[in-house]
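ingest -> fold -> write
write: protein_1
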Amino acid sequence: MIVVMRVSSKESEINAVKSKLEGVGFKTHLIQGVERIVIGAIGDKRALPSLGIDLMEGVEKIVHIMNPYKLVSKEVKEKTIIQIGSTSVGGDIMTVVAGPCAVESEEQLMESAKAVKEAGATMLRGGAFKPRTSPYSFQGLQEEGLKLLRDASKIYDLPIVTEVMNIKTVELVAEYADVLQIGARNMQNFDLLKEVGRMKKPVVLKRGLSATLEEFLMAAEYIMSEGNYEVILCERGIRTFETATRNTLDLSIVPLIKQTSHLPVIVDPSHATGTWKLVAPMSKGSLAVGADGLMIEVHPNPPEALCDGSQSLTPENFNKLMQELQSMHSLLHA
């Protein structure tokens, strides 16, 4: 359930409600929006009638959420905007996270960072730890890759988004990254979700290969239930019978999430399609259905890429796409 507090509520009134709920075993989450203040309460509802919460000072109403995901629900908050450095996700800005699939070398990363910055990207992506289908494929530069990402971030003033693969490396990655990414294969790694939920870093959560909408939102609930409310959902394609593309990009999930949850949603057309020629049209389609942004792979020399070169745009193609996307974004938000 959620306890909706009046916007004019005093801090002492909010703390009194939280204390009363926690006193009978509820776990509380304070979520402050522009239009209202909400206390999410997870626990045994049978204890609620005797508490008289609805009669306490500052309380506007109590709302029972029927969905299994509580903190993710739109009933908690109308919209979440996440501030990351000088940019944000979920507001009026078109978020574009761009860069190579994997950090391969200083030269490759710096060239990529320079290109995406000049084209208008708002954040830099790059894998230092790479989960690969084959154990013989390039696995990433690991901490050396993280150091290169941090150097590129300082030079080009781009916040870093990079993947964390297991609990052991969460603190290490968090030392360097501005945003922690949970990959599709780890979407239901619940111990990892809880660990990043305890970090004070925004999280990009990618949809699992065969995850339903409810499973996707429940994964976000795991993160938020630990106190981290800065979650960005990312659609990156799901596994279907179709083999013409790497995955099937489910754009219908974007408006569905918007109707269900307050969390921002971005789309990764690179991983979804697996081919660079489809990245531009699917990027435009993503904006058209209401996505808050995109995650796009860019490499200075895709044929020589150690990871996913076939789906990476060249700097020239990315620059052309960004011009088209910026024009489209202006029209959609006019």
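write: protein_2
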Amino acid sequence: MSDDLDAVRAFLGCATPDAWCAAAVEDLETLLIDHANCEKKAAATAISLLFRYDDEPALVDAMSRLAREELRHFEQVRRLMAQRGIAPRPLSAGRYAGGLRALVRARDPDRLVDLLVCGAFVEARSCERFAALQPHLDAELGDFYGRLLRSEARHFEDYLALAAAHAGAAELAERIARFREAEAELVRAPDASFRFHSGVPAGVCCA
């Protein structure tokens, strides 16, 4: 697993700030509620790609598997919430996904390449955050996140491999660099709300 984590960390433009981890530990309720939302949205994204690009067999197979796994994770997070007496409640959307989606080009095949690169960054950041959080959590939640980070690393690799199959090396490197810069800024910059993929909540000292 260390090799997978090394690849994820090398792909990302920065590490999760320690201050974000501290905020997460102080607000496990919001963390778990938003984590469940993220798993549900990840499944929906995979299904959307499956429908939109149903003439791409490798993509359809990968997104079908990914969607099923994300929905299993959603169910697992909801069970953990129930065990801890955490009731689902609406949360406003964070700025992370929208900030990345703003970089997606409008027309295919460019659009598909960018959606796949975007997916790779979302999965890589999820994996990196699970690893960053794990030492600070209780045994049950830490073990759960330790298992999940392996899945997120696979999903990252799936998205990246699909992107490489649809773009030349130079184009892919350019798009990864563009998304990497934007993604790192979203993670480093102060954020109005704490979310699973947010920056450090405003007013919290960043480290």
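write: annotation protein_2
The two ends are 26 Å apart (CA to CA).
Helices lie at 2-11, 18-26, 28-52, 57-83, 96-101, 110-133, 139-165, 169-188.
pipeline exit 0
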